[in-house]
Amino acid sequence: MKHANGHDVIQLFEQFAPKKFAMDGDPVGLQIGRLNGPVKNVLVALDVLEDVVDEAIEKDAQLIIAHHPSVYRPLKNMATDTPQGRLIEKCIRHGIAVYAAHTNLDIAEGGVNDLLAEALGLRDTEVLSPLFEDKLRKLVVFVPVSHEEAVRTALGNAGAGAIGNYSHCSFSARGTGRFLPGEGTNPFLGEAGKLEAADETRVETIYPASIEKQVLASMLEAHPYEEVAYDIYPVVNEGRKFGLGRIGEIEQEMALRDFAEHVKKTLEVPALRVVGNLDEKVKKVAVLGGDGNKYFAEAKKAGADVFVTGDFYYHNAHDALALGLNVVDPGHNVEKVMKKGVAAYMRKACREHQLDVRFIASEVNTDPFQFL
Ligand SMILES: [Zn+2]
Q: Which regions of the chain does DSSP assign to beta strands (E)?
């Protein structure tokens, strides 16, 4: 096991929740401190409140990975007699870096919304509000027959040819490749200045554009030619969608009243608000962690019987009633599922990369609301 610094940890984290997923203007990334210091313990938190910083100090954490940015609006000053200034000062004085992953963690596969959908037992989940598509591309490469297997394997291992639950998908056809090696070349087949005809295989496969670099690098490494002939085509097949919220079905339909109880129990909240007919049966569920006010019409359009989200407004509740959409609002704080979820993901990632780092899910309850 190797010692790690903040950069090592964040590099792995950003493979999970890339910054490019964040919505415009969302201040994700390093917010306080520095990443080039050693990191032994990381505290994963929903909010960075003073109690959370105290917990980080107590648990000897050098880094806090938080969902909600601690510096959200531009600071007007750094006076340390304000709550925010005091918090920043405390972090810096104790050498604690704060890194925020907000909408990028909502959107990420396995992020906040997937964790909520999983907790609620949703199946066959899809993205509720797609924001990006990882466009598909086709690669055609001409390989000497002796190396076709090696190139196909390299492509598959790099992630090309993944269709549904199948991997390493490709198609091959034999043919003749012709080339005239020029002066100063060192051809794998034939010799400089002599027209060559070689038995070659045309190997074709598809891949999402986001992994193009690794797909091409693996293909070129397994290919024996000095100059590899290959073509990349855009395709119109739908690529994987990334976005906010998830929609899926619970195993057994149940009355809204029972579903609300299920949400209360699984998301561990003392109380929640319900909009709709408590006796109506629900099966198709849309979920959007945090404030999903902007998305309730989309949930209805996607066929949801009930929409689970936080911070739901009074007037939106009237509109949802008029639309015939049930809403369960367990509060914004249910995003706390990210604490254990991110810690578990990062524990595994660091183990795989032989990094000696501990991840601790914060135990501080940061819900500002109490129910009397
Ligand atoms: Zn939130």
A: 4-5, 29-32, 38-39, 41-45, 63-66, 97-100, 123-134, 136-144, 171-179, 196-208, 230-234, 240-255, 273-275, 281-291, 306-310, 326-329, 358-361
